Amino acid sequence: MTGTDAADAGGGRDSAARVRELQALLNHHSALYYGGKPEIPDADFDDLLNELKALEERHPELVHPDSPTQRVGAPPDTAFAPVRHGPPMMSLHNALDIEELRAWHERVHRSLAASTPVPAGEQALPTMKGAGVGDLAVELKFDGLAISVRYENGVLVRAATRGDGRTGEDVTHSVRTIADVPIRLRGDAPAVLEVRGEVILRLSTFERLNARQAERGEKAYVNPRNAAAGSLRQKDARVTAERGLSFWCYQLSYAEGGPAFTSHMQTLEWLASLGLPVDEHAARLADLAAVEAHVVDFERRRHDLDYEFDGMVVKVDDLATQARLGVDAKAPRWAIAYKFPPEERTTKLLDIEVSIGPSGQATPFARLEPVFVGGVTVGTATLHNEDQVAAKDVRPGDTVIVRRAGEVIPEVVGPVLSERPGGSEPWSFPPGCPVCGEALRRTEGMSATLCVNYWCPRQIRGRIEHFVGRAAMDIEFLGERNIDRFVTEGLLGDVVGLYSLDFERIVQMEGFGQVSVNNLRGSIEASKQQPLARLLFALSIPEIGQVNAQVLAASFGDIDSILAAGEEALAEVEGFGPIIATSVRAWFDDPHNRRLIEGLRTAGLRMEAEEPAAAEGDPLPQTLAGMSVVVSGALDGFSRDEAKQAIVARGGSSPGSVSTRTTALVVGADPGTSKLRKAEASGVRVIDEAAFQALLETGLLP
Questions:
Q1: Is 234 in contact with 76 (CB distance < 8 Å)?
Q2: How far is it, in rounded angstroms, from Cα 156 to Cα 162?
C-alpha cells in the first residue's frame, strides 16, 4: 500500500499530517539542492513530490499557498501589470578602479564632516576626525535581474521587476517558481516585509539549460543574465520553473512590525533567519584598506564560484549614517559598486562599417571575427566616431583587442601592431550615407558625423522605433518589421503619422486581422495619455535619456515652457549644464521638430508633466499656492523627493532650477553653486531648513 493509500485509510487527520510532513521534507531538500548540497537523488525527490500532488488532488482543502506543488502554476492571466514601488529601486554609482573607490570614501567623509555640528567654543578642524564613516559592508555584485519581493503575514504576495526604478512589472507568478524564494517565511515574520534582491542563473544550471537547448535543436542562450531575465518574464510560469533560477536578497526595503536595527549587516542576518537567501560572502570590514584587500581577493576568485558577479558592492554599514548621507537623483550616497576590470580578448577586425542612428548620427563600428569575451560572443564592437578610429589607428585586417565590461557595448581598444599585415592603409570615413546616399557632414568642433537628410529611410524608421518603445510611448503590436512595412508602403512617414494610420488598408495586409488591428489602434490611442517625460524621451532629442526627460518635464511643467526657455534657463536644469542646454535648444529650434511637436499636439497627445499622486487622507492646507520653491543640497528632515512632495502637496511647484519666478531657494548641505549664484543675481530669497519648515506651515517667508 502506498503512502497515499495509507494516509487515506487513516482518515482526513492522517492525510493532513502527511501533507504537512511532505511539504516540510520537500522544502528542506529543495533548500539543500539549491545550496549545492543535495542529500537525496532527484528520483527520490520526484517520488515525494508526486505523493504530495496525489494527496492534494484527493484533498484540495489541504492545498496551501506555500506548498511546493504551488511553485509551478497554470498558465497565468497576468500581462505583467505595473507595480508602483514604495521606496524607489535605485541604481548604484560605479567605481571602476581603486582610486575611484577611495574618492567615494573621501566624499562620504567630507559629507559627514560637513553635517557634524562643531561644539560651541571649538574651531572646526580641516581634517575629518569625528565624522568617521565607520564599518563598511561588502557584498558580491551579482550579474542578474533586480526584483522586489513583498510578504504579508509571512506569505509571499507580490514580486516585481525593477523597471524604471519607480514602476516595475508584476512577475509574482514566475518568482513563486524559484525554489530558493520562500513562499512562506520562517519564524516570527513581520506583518509586512519587502525585500530587494537579484534573480540569477547559476553557471552550472546555465550549462544544463544550453545542453537541453542543443538536444532540442534550439538556439543556445547567450549568457546567464539574459537567460535569467527572459525566464523571469515568461507568461507561463511552468516555463520559468524549468529554467532553475536562483535568488539572492541584498536589502531590507521595508518592514512593518519587525525588530529595530542599527546596521545593514544586522538586517541581512535577520533576513537569513526568516529563510531568505543572502550572500554568504557578505562581510563587515573596519576600514577602506580591508575593503580594498577584500575586493582584490574576490577579483582573483571571480571565476571560481558557480555564478557570475562583476564586482563588489560597498555600503556604509551604520543605518543612521546612511540616513544622514541620503541619496541623489539616481543612487544612494552611502553605497557604491566597485566594478572589476573588464575582460579583454583579441580577434581579427574584418571591416569597419558605418551605421546610421535615429537622429542621423553616423557611427563607425567594427565587424569582427566572432570572439567570446565578457560572457558573450561578440561579432561587432563600437568605434564611437571618426576621431576615435584615427586615434586608435585600427584598420581592416588588424588583430585587435576587444573589451566588454558588464552590459556595456563591446569596444575595440586598439590594434596589435606586431601582427598588422603589410600594405595596410588607414581607414577613412565614407563621404556618403550608406542608407540614402546623401552626403555625410561633420560640423567644425563637433565629434559627430551626421546624415543631414531628415527623410533618410533609416532615420525615419529609427525615430519611429524609438518612439513606440516600451520606455517611451509604449505602443505595442508595432515591431520593427511592421514599421518597416508601413514606411516602405507609404503608410507612415514620421511619428505623427502613427495617429492617422489607415487601418482599413492595414487590415487587408498579410499578417493582420481585425483583432490585431484593433489591438494596435487601442495601443496607439492609449499612448496619447503618456505624460510629458515619456514624450520627451520618445522624441529622440540628443542628450535626453529617461532620467533627463523626467528632470526636464519636472523643471518646466509643459512643452510650451520648454519651447520658450533659453539656453541659460535650460543650463540651470539639474544635471544639464551648457553643453546639454545647447543641444536641446538646437533640437527645439529645428523647423522639422517644431512641426513635429505641433502635429503631436493636434493629434491629442499630452503636453504637460504628470501630476504627482495625491496623498492619502485629508488634503493639506494650500499654504504654498502659486509659489515656486526650489530645493538644493541635502536636508536633515527630508529626502529630495520628500521635500518636493511637501511643496506640491501644499499647492506649490518645485522645479529643478532657479528663475526670476522662484519664490525661495531652500539650501541644505552641499547646495549647487549655480543655483545659489542664480538666486543672488535674481533677488530670490535663500532660506535654510528651519525657515522652510515655517514656510510649509504658514506660507510666509521670514
A1: no
A2: 17
The DSSP letter of residue 184 is B
Same domain membership, residue 400 and residue 255: no
Residues 368 and 494 occupy one common structural domain: no
DSSP per-residue codes, 310-357: EEEEEEE-BHHHHHHH-B-SSSBTTEEEEEPPPEEEEEEEEEEEEEE-
**What does the DSSP assignment read for 272-298?**
HHTT--B-TT-EEESSHHHHHHHHHHH
Is 32 in a helix, a strand, or coil? helix
Number of domains in the chain: 6
Domain CATH for 506: 1.10.150.20
Helix (H, G, I), strand (E, B) or coil at 502: coil
User: Beta partners for 344?
Assistant: 403
CA dihedral angle for residue 524, residue 528, residue 532, residue 534, rounded to 10 degrees: -20
Q: CA-CA distance, 200 to 228, in Å (whole number)?
A: 6
How high is the mean pLDDT in each 10-residue block of the chain (702 residues)? Answer: 46 77 80 51 67 86 74 44 87 88 94 70 40 87 92 94 85 91 92 95 90 82 81 84 92 91 96 95 95 92 86 95 86 92 84 88 94 83 89 93 73 87 92 94 83 89 92 89 91 94 93 92 95 93 85 88 90 82 93 95 91 58 86 82 82 78 86 78 87 89 81
531657494: which residue's cell?
665
* Backbone phi, psi, residue 586, to 5°: -65, -40
Cβ–Cβ under 8 Å, residues 346 and 453: no
- Residue 293: name the closest of 278, 279, 314, 308 by CA: 314
Cβ proximity of 26 and 45 under 8 Å: yes
Within 10 angstroms of residue 449's Cβ, the number of other Cβ atoms is 21
Q: Taking a C-beta distance cutoff of 8 angstroms, is the pair 374, 406 a contact?
A: yes
- Co-location of 312 and 376 in the same domain: no
Let me know: does 349 contact 416? Beta carbons within 8 Å. no
Q: Report the pLDDT value the prediction gives residue 543, as an integer from 0 to 100.
A: 84
The reply to whether 660 falls in a domain is yes
Cell numbers given for 164: 524604471
Q: Do 354 and 415 share a domain, yes or no?
A: yes
Supply the CATH number for residue 390's domain.
Answer: 2.40.50.140
Q: Does residue 203 belong to any structural domain of this protein? A: yes
Catalytic residue among 37, 53, 129, 141: 141
Q: Are residues 313 and 357 in the same domain?
A: no
Active-site annotation holds for 528? no
